[in-house]
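Entry type: protein chain
Record version: 2
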Amino acid sequence: MGLFRRGPKRDGDDVPRDAEFSFFSEGEGARFRGQVREAFAEQGLEVSVYADVVVDSAGRQFGLGNLAAVLHNDERGPRVWPDVIRGHVAMVLRTMDAPSALDTLPPDQIRAQLYPRVIGSDGLDPETFGYARPLAPGLCEVLALDLPESVMMLTDEALEPLGDVPRLRERAMDNLRGLPVEGHETIKDAGGMCFEVVVGDSFYTASRVLVLEALVRQVTGQHITPDGALVALPFRHQVAFHVIRDASVIPTLNGMAAFAASGYADTPGAITPYVYWWRNGTLTQLSDRDEDGDGLRIVVGDEFQDLLERLVTQQRHDDED
């Protein structure tokens, strides 16, 4: 899985863009939706196709955003789109038509497959997910049931028969800590930037920010300092961190801000394009979009500014010694 990913070269930027998915040209968007319609027809379903969703005769809706992003990021290009779309549609229909896992799995097995999941909170219904835990503006944590072909985010109603939510979350966190590190790379440059990136096929890779202390020990063998760490979770299969020890946090913050924004763009399972200060489990946002929306800016509060000044002063004293 690439760290700084680029989409496959297809139609150039000079070609008119699709109104909903700007990473597609108009022609690519039309081809994509036509192939989605064909894939549903092969499964015996006629669907009405809209810009970002298809609807069958029973009123069931199937969003197109994640599938479009998967195709955009597939380096093999449009030649594989029909097969990828067929596989995705078949999987979605199998999942929807099968009996609910909540009705067929014993409670102990459900708890063994329970994980916390960090997601963007935009569009999350507070009436349905009243237990969702806010992490930072635009970010929240929910509980999810991990299934062979899908991930089921659990509503208040689904959790009710399973027991007390805090205890369920405790079990889910234990399951998260038990996940292996699938891939790890250190990103650094001559200017002092240095951070660790953990990647994996697991839908809970980014959610490991919730157990960052355990992840840092697992990856580096070290502990997080009282000053905390920088973290970024651009999409569900990736989390980056830098333990704050010295003034290298300054170039690293800038590098991670660019990294997070790049990883978030046009990505399936996108979470957030921003960098955060992690301290004792609390996340404070440090990067944001420019006022014109085209670039990035670093935004720090008084507390983080005091930290930076202390580290810079310490670095100066160390250099003088």
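Comment: The chain has ten helices and 15 strands.
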